[in-house]
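Case study 2.
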Amino acid sequence: MVKLYSGDAEPGLELVRRMWHHITCRKGWTWDHPSHFQADGDRMVGHDYYHNTLLWAVPAALLKRDLAGFCAPAGLVDRILQAAQGRSRPESGTSNKQDGILAGDKIK
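Prediction:
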């Protein structure tokens, strides 16, 4: 996350990709992520389901925002949850002041 917040997004995203690939594809730990790894990539401690929040933090880090705005009403997380429940979403091109993303925009 430090790389993403510091503006070094490409290597930061590659680290995120490698970590998630290792956790989910190689190890098969889809819901019980370790909180610490050994040097060889095995689980050291922790079997915590809430470590998925790391993935939710990536868009906020790329935009240099905190998670509070992303989780607030009308923020990105709320819009994703609303869409999943079939509720109305902001129209394309409308501004979202909470997280600074226009509906329909792609984070690069």
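The chain has five helices and two strands.
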